[in-house]
Every structure is written in C-alpha cells, then in structure tokens.
Amino acid sequence: MKYIILVFLALTVTPAFAQDPKIGDYLDSSNPSLMMQETEISYSEFNKVSRDLVIVEFETTHEGSWQAEFHNNLLYGNPNGNAVIRIYDAVTTDKFFEIGMGSHPINKYWIAAQVPETGYVMLHADFENGWVQGKPTKITYSEQSGLTVDNGLRTVLSNLNLSPFTIKSYSVYGMEGSTDPPAVTAGVYHVKILSADYAENQLSIFPFVVTSLVGLAVIILIISKKRS
Fold first, then answer.
1. Which CATH architecture has domain 39-202?
2. Which strand ranges, in their side-by-side order, compose the sheet holding 109-115?
3. What does the pLDDT look like over 54-86, one tens digit per residue?
4. What is the value of pTM for the model shown?
5. How far is Cα 228 from Cα 223, in angstroms, rounded to an integer?
6. Which of 65, 102, 119, 125 is the most buried (most CB within 10 A)?
7. b/e 19-50 (16+ beta carbons within 10 angstroms → b)
8. Contact 201, 27 (CB under 8 A)
9. 216 burial type by CB count under 10 A (0-12 exposed, 13-18 middle, 19+ buried)
C-alpha cells in the first residue's frame, strides 16, 4: 500500500511546475487564450502638459498575466521635452504606473506609480542615459510575481507589488509648461501588449484537476489503510 501512495505523491509533483504558465507559452495566434493589442500614438499627443492629459481606453482589457513593450520612435524638438505614458488599472481609476523618457542627448528615464494608499511615488530614475532609441522598454506582470521593468539595457525594477492590475487605458503628455516649445516634432510611440486569459484555455487548468483528484485518492487510501 505504501508504494501506491508514493506513486500518487510523485504524480502530484509534476503539475506544480505548470502552475505559473508564461505568456510566451501561448504565442500561437490560433490560441483563444492569447490577446494582443498594438497601439500607435502620434507625436502630437505628447505636446501637452500633465493637467491637460486625456485618458484613452484600449480596445480590450488585459488581466492576469501580461507583457507590454513601449517603442519610443519620437523626434524631440525641445531639450526639456519628455515622452510620458501612464497605464491605468481597470478597477481603481486613480491607480497607474508611469514611464517617462526625456529628450536626446541626455535621455533621462523614470518609472513612477500611483496607488490610493501612498499616492504618486517615484520608483526609479536615471538622469542621464536611462534609455536608448531603438531598444524598447519591456514590462512583465503577473499577480504572483508583480511588475518588472527592463529599460532596454537592463532590469531596473523587479517584482513591484501592484496586484491586482488589469490594463484598461492610457494617457500621454510631454511638456513641462504650457508655454514651452513642442516636446516632440515627429514620429510615433508604439505600444504592444500581450496577455493570456487562461480561463479560455481548458488545458491550462488540467494540472490543477489532476492534482486535486490524485490528492483525494491519496487521502482515501490513507483512511482505508487505517481502518483495515
């Protein structure tokens, strides 16, 4: 009997490695669990100050686990100009994270977040050479691991706890003062978001079902052995 129990316990180990599937595992376009969003933001949208920003909703929301890429292909027209994007949570309207990229050649770079408990907080800042044109900022998020940011050169922020965070909308701005020259004069800012809705993929819950059934079988065997 003890050997049967050991076999069942061994079977329960395998599903543990499948509990946190990665977005990259679902890049097949025919897979209904994958959602992809690509948005191009015109340079002109950045020529405003933060108090005049307009919140724009994405076509779809992205929850659970997601990955976002920000490609800054803008031509700056002001040494004090910036390209700032805020990504908002679907549930809490005043909850967002922010990525800022300053003009060439200084290329300042920062990451900030706002949550109701603490307000607006600067999380990371490079005042020189914080980003490189042609190398996107990549952000990955899961409810288990939090939010991690790679600025195209290195990982600058790891495992920030913003959970839960469902992407719903964005806003952009770039001017420090309303009388400043335009922050940018040409180009586009490209946003790409991938998210995996595991509820749509029946195979993704199979390991959990197997684990539950095997666990139940082990309990029954142990109880029956004690009674015998």
1. Sandwich (2.60)
2. 56-62, 167-173, 82-89, 96-102, 109-115, 119-126
3. 999 999 899 989 999 999 999 999 999 999 999
4. 0.75
5. 9
6. 102
7. eebebeebeeeeeebbbebeeebebebbbbee
8. no
9. exposed
